[in-house]
Structures are given as structure tokens and as C-alpha cells.
Amino acid sequence: MLMSQQRPTPYDVKYRLFGIPHRINPLFYLGSAIIVWPEVDNPAYWLIAFLCVCVNIMIHELGHGLAFKRFRAYPVIEFGFLYGVTIPNRRLLDRWKRVVVTLAGPVTGLLFAATVYASEQAFPLGGTEKRHPGALRLPD
What we know:
Layout: E1 13-17, E2 20-24, H1 26-36, H2 43-70, E3 75-80, E4 83-88, H3 95-122
Parallel strand pairs: 2-3
Antiparallel strand pairs: 1-2, 3-4
Helix pairs in contact: 1-2, 2-3
């Protein structure tokens, strides 16, 4: 067990996503709230920022988990206070596989961010007048 992992509690949220078990300790939400709290004044924006932090960490860990699963090292994903961790059931011996698993988290996050950005550019929520001057414009 890693030193930073919290022990299971009766309040943990447990679910499976893409065949990978997840466990969320309630302290994960507290840690995410602490990250966001000093940065946002408006309560509505605070909630959006809080959800963005939670989803970002979850997508990052899911990237690692899917890579482990691809190499048949079936993982468990756990979230605790200020961390997420993906724990495989066995060690990967090939260095290239470990590199792929390491890169899978950040790459998954970048792909998700690119998808959100492209969706917002294609279907703007606030109208075209609020776009950043250097924003990507898709052809009509």
C-alpha cells in the first residue's frame, strides 16, 4: 500500500468504468475543493471549477488504467485527498509498456481538452462576440 493511500471507508463511492474498478474516498472532494477555493469568488464558477478539477483527475487516471488494461495488468483506480492513483495487479516488465502507461494519463487529458476546445469552437455557448481573438475558427 502506498503511504498516501487512505484506507477504505463505508462512505467511499465505488463503481466500474470500462471494466476498471474505481474507489473515491470522500477526502478526494475535500482536496479538490481546497485546490479551487482560493481561486474563484463566484459560487457558480466555484462549482464549475470544482467539477473540472475532479473530472480532470479522473480522466487522467482513466488513461493510465486503460493502458494497464491493454497490457493485461488489470488495474484499480483510487482517489483520495489531493491524489488519484492507478494500481495494476502485476508489474509490467517491458520498459516500453511502462513508458506507454506513464504517457497515457497526460495524453488522455490532452485529447479530452482538445475535444472540449473544438466542441466549444464549433458550438459556442456564449456567442461569437466572446471568443478570444486568437481562437480557432472552424469553416462554415
